């Protein structure tokens, strides 16, 4: 709901401003980069029945990914002084992003009470179904700019134990983060522009408690970070 409200508000602001011919940029983008993250599973017990600590942390996983999307911007040239060098924008990828599947074999459940517990194969599949950014740019020169913004990522997950789907950790999650970037732009006399950008992403992790009865487990995605190179083509109105 928060993202929907912001998107509608921003669109109305841009359309209203466009009628006053204050400057609107529309464009499409493609980016390629890497992201890395790791996860952890916790238990409230200090040790399990084998005397092992009640946490398991994955190795750092790094993946190469590519996205394509669209953006809309509004310059603030009507403001006085240095504020006129700013612009605000909304960016959204136009497709889902498959993050693949991770699996592991657990010989005994962490922190399980009582006697032996059935060993299990665990797997987690994740897909990004939304990747939106609200951002601001600052023109340092006519061709060089800085960028900073807030990122929201929607992730759908499917968790299985021995091939059986589980919902104890939920299936839909929202992550928030930030992006910092620097870019160069070349604009033709007809308003067509081309941009090249370098962006650094820092996305907050999330901890989710199992909803199973009497469960002592929780799963945590630690911070996700990465960088991308991006090319954009658009037109100024």
Describe the protein's topology.
Blueprint: H1 2-18, E1 24-37, E2 39-47, E3 53-57, E4 61-75, E5 86-93, E6 97-106, E7 120-139, E8 144-161, E9 164-166, E10 172-187, E11 192-203, E12 206-209, E13 217-221, E14 224-236
Antiparallel strand pairs: 1-4, 1-14, 2-3, 2-13, 4-5, 5-7, 6-7, 7-8, 8-9, 8-10, 10-11, 11-14, 12-13
Would you write up a description of this structure?
There is one protein chain. This protein is mostly beta strands and 237 residues long. It has one domain. Helix content is 7%, strand content 64%. The protein has 1 helix and 14 strands, in the order H-E-E-E-E-E-E-E-E-E-E-E-E-E-E. The strands form 2 sheets. Strands 1-4-5-7-8-10-11-14 form an 8-stranded antiparallel barrel. It has a 4-stranded antiparallel sheet with strand order 3-2-13-12, with no helix packed on it.
Give the SSE order as H and E letters: HEEEEEEEEEEEEEE
What is the CA–CA distance across the termini? 30 Å
Instruction: Give a count of the beta strands, DSSP E runs of length 2 or more.
Output: 14
From the helix content, strand content and strand pairing, which structural class follows? mainly beta
Shape: elongated
- How many helices? The count is 1
Radius of gyration: 22 Å
Q: What's the pLDDT, averaged over the residues? A: 77
Strand order of the largest sheet: 1-4-5-7-8-10-11-14
Number of domains: 1
Q: How much of the polypeptide forms β-strand, as a percent range?
A: over 45%
Low-confidence stretches: 47-53
């Amino acid at each position: 709901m928060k993202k929907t409200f912001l998107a509608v508000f921003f669109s109305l602001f841009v359309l209203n401003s466009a009628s006053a011919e204050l400057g609107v940029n529309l464009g499409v983008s493609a980016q390629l980069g890497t992201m890395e993250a790791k996860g952890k599973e916790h238990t409230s017990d200090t040790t399990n029945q084998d005397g092992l600590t009640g946490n398991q942390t994955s190795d750092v996983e790094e993946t190469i990914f590519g996205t394509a999307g669209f953006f809309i911007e509004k310059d603030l040239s009507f403001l006085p002084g240095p504020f006129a060098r700013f612009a605000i924008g909304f960016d959204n990828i136009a497709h889902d992003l498959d993050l693949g599947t991770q699996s592991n074999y657990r010989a005994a459940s962490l922190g399980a009470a009582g006697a032996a517990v059935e060993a299990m194969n665990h797997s987690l599949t994740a897909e990004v179904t939304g990747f939106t950014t609200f951002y601001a740019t600052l023109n340092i020169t006519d061709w060089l700019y800085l960028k900073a913004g807030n990122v929201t990522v929607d992730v759908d997950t499917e968790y299985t134990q021995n091939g059986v789907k589980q919902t104890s950790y939920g299936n839909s999650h929202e992550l928030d983060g930030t992006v910092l970037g620097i870019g160069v732009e070349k604009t033709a006399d007809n308003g067509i522009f081309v941009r090249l950008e370098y962006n650094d992403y820092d996305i907050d992790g999330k901890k989710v408690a199992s909803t199973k009865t009497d469960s002592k487990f929780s799963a945590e995605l630690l911070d996700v970070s990465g960088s991308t190179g991006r090319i954009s083509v658009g037109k100024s109105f």
